[in-house]
Amino acid sequence: MKKLLLGLACVMSSCVGYEDTITEAIQIGQASMAPTPGESVSATRQALEKGVTVGINLLQKDGGFSQSMHRILIPTELQKAAQLARSAGLGAQVDGFEKSLNRAAEQAMSSAMPIFKRAITQLTFQDVVTILTGPDQAATNYFRSTSERQLMDTFKPIVAKATQQNNVGKYYTQLITTVRPAAALAGVPLPAVNLDEYVSQKATNALFVEIGRQEKMIRDNPVERSTALLQKVFGYYANKKG
Prior knowledge:
about 240 residues; mainly alpha
């Protein structure tokens, strides 16, 4: 009825574009309505799930780690040994080792979705209120602070399988065995490194970065609010902050 009346008024006054005006008015009205607790929880979970989905799709592809800002470097404890190996003409072995670390992380990502989704479902309304009224990456930071260790523990066996498939241990052993005599002469330590733990931590960190990036986009840009629920909840809290 409101649309009909507005339409008649526009005909009488020869105005144009009234449908766009109605749509904009409806969106503004919806954004000003306080969401229910259930809507707030669901929208926050949707935002996190979107971040996880986008992040996993980005990171699991070939080069998702090795050719991105998330590239996994040889562990700090082994950097001196790696430099020594390169100076001895063993650069190909060092590169192979690093490539295997990145490929393991990429492959492990394909199995990460159920793990992260289960953690997302544990968010409560009290948590969500704090998140929605917080800074740009409040949801991601809360998710990380409450779930990172559990996610790491669950994710690690998946990474371990991926590291085995990509011969990470083999490359590591070859590198250490080859460089050991020169390292002893140069006084370069060759500490044992838990590579499964290392790759798991790097992979988890990368995914949290991508989740945080998506969360900020949803908060900052209405176009990124891809569902009516995201539009309502994040629009409401964006207006309150504004």
